[in-house]
Amino acid sequence: MKRIITTAKAPAPIGPYNQAVLTGNTLYISGQIALNPETSQLVLDNIKDETQQVMQNLKAILKAADMTFENVVKSSIFISNMDDFSSINNVYGSFFDEATAPARETVQVAKLPKNVNVEISMIAVQ
């Protein structure tokens, strides 16, 4: 059985999907972009601030499922420019203990929703 996880502290879905789905003890979090849920504005000032907003959105969804970044077992990072990798990685890494960080891939893509520069999805386990 699946349970839909939602929170007002992360952006509302803009299509036929949910912020996250919990099935058994596994949480699947949809890709998050740097949309500030309080203002509904994109945070695109610079790649570090953009990534910080994405991670805050993910944190809010994890919290809604009674989880933290410690529960994350897999991350997928999609970026529009591999030259931003180092900056994104520094912000992303600040949310994890390197010794227990999740598995991950980082992929450069041609275009992301709303022309953002980074989107991150996660899988977490209780």
TrEMBL record:
SUPFAM superfamilies: YjgF-like. PANTHER family: 2-IMINOBUTANOATE/2-IMINOPROPANOATE DEAMINASE RIDA, PROTEIN HMF1-RELATED. Belongs to the RutC family. This is RidA family protein. It comes from Tamlana crocina.
